[in-house]
Amino acid sequence: MDHPLIDLINARIAEAEADGAFDNLSGAGRPLRRVEDPENELINRVLQENGAVPEFVSLSRELSRLREELREAGDRSRRSEILKEMSMMEARIDLARKAYLK
What we know:
Elements: H1 6-18, H2 41-49, H3 55-72, H4 76-100
Helix pairs in contact: 3-4
């Protein structure tokens, strides 16, 4: 089924083309870059350009921070707390990774 405004869309594109709106565009004549997920390419690019990362990546960074904190912690009770946090973080990473790869 065509879009209900397909005729209007095509007319606007033809008008812009006639006015030269598509002349001298950057990248003209070069092939498009390969993408792994064409359906979601735009959203993935916007997220990446704005520093967004998958949840499991940000959780992995937090886990690294906890590991560093564990190395520096001298108090036995604090070390125990950190180990518990790390265990929970590893479980959250596993769940987030599985959700991301679906």
